[in-house]
Amino acid sequence: MKTNIESVLKGRTFSLVMFTCVVGFVLFKRFYRDLGDVFIFLVVLGTIASVCYNFRLIKKDPIFIAFFLSLIVPVISWINSKVQIPELAKDSPSPFLFYDFFFFWFIAYWTNGKNERIAAILLAYCLSVLGIYITHSPDFIGEIVRGLRGSRIDFDVVNAQYTSLFAGFGLISAAFLFVIKLNLSLRLEVLKKLGAATLLAFFILIILITQSRQVWLALVACILFAPLAHKLISNSRVSTRATVLTYSAFALIIAAASSIDIVEQRITTEKSTIIKIVNLDLESVPDSGSIGLRIHLWLEAWEWIKKRPILGSGEDARELVITESEKLPKLVRDNFTHLHNSHLETLVSFGLLGAAIIYFLIVWPPVYTTMASPHSVQKTWKAFSLIVVIFWLTVNFFESYFYSADGIFIFSVFYGVVYSFKFPTPVAKGNQPRENPRKKYFCQT
Q1: Is residue 441 part of a domain?
Q2: In terms of pTM, does the model score above 0.70?
Q3: Could you read off the pLDDT of 254-265 as tens digits, one per residue?
Q4: What is the C-alpha separation between 212 and 136, in angstroms, rounded?
Q5: How many folded domains does the chain comprise?
Q6: Closest C-alpha to 327, from 291, 285, 363
Q7: Are 422 and 381 a contacting pair, CB within 8 Å?
């Protein structure tokens, strides 16, 4: 009986069923939540069953180990808050507070680093974002038209930052869908590229008209780092001259984009505040406006971090920083619940101990993938991993995506792809695919 169950759980059909559930989760989670929850429940259930028969291979996985360590962090931070700020501490801890940070592991487990499966996930994400926009907006086309005329739009998706965040990762998805090589006929390959190019143009448009500077900055960071990242990737033979020329071309593209009216007007907004920040004249920064308010929130957070840097002040600390402040305006204290910076929120709530867990989850998957041999991970996906982590870390300097449902969804999807190379499909000995050493293409797939 055990042998029969094991053969089913390790079989190709079960793997395909589980991966179909993964795609269902990606496609439906954020715009048809009930159905998306069913899919992720099946994925988790199937993964647990599979792990029972593969535990010997799984038990040493650093992410698997980190899950059990993550149960301790909220408890320790809660104890610290009980000791140091008992009047503000919660009545009990939440040991499973970080559990949703680990959903990406389940996605990775069934994606197996296969191009076809990665393409399916990226396409499902793009379609999901389109579905989110259409189902949330009362006038989808009308909002796009107003956006083209200069209005800032958000399709009623939380706010414009979230709308732009979805589009930013949609842009990354579409770009890699365009370059990924699948075993398709010429006709289907042309259709794939046309579809990817259409999605690419659509997400660029959304990124422009949502006017989110954090996403613009994240994209610039990715663009600036891309040539250097390519050069650093193992076995890459790009000359320094080619790297310099690439940076020059990117500089021209960025300059051209900055001259677009929508971009120029958004960048120059709060110009005086930016000048004060550059001059480190923080006392003169107004506590209003998008940038000024963030600076004041972060300064308040820094005071809390200095008092309890190692263990933090507990999971509710990000709200307490605001409600207990004597400097922030009453309007902010009454209406704001987070600090608009995931990095500071992590340190405020869980200190350096909690930050060690969170940043391990963010940094280890791309490190594992980029350091893997060219035979196990192709250069396309190494570049993908670096772009994803740069984009994710950058946007979280200005918004609290670590601790939001939409942010965790995006993290799960893209880190599921990044870490999927940890779980390759077993190949019979002697049948491993070999890479032609003479072919050295950046987008080799």
Answers
A1: no
A2: yes
A3: 777 777 777 777
A4: 19
A5: 1
A6: 285
A7: no
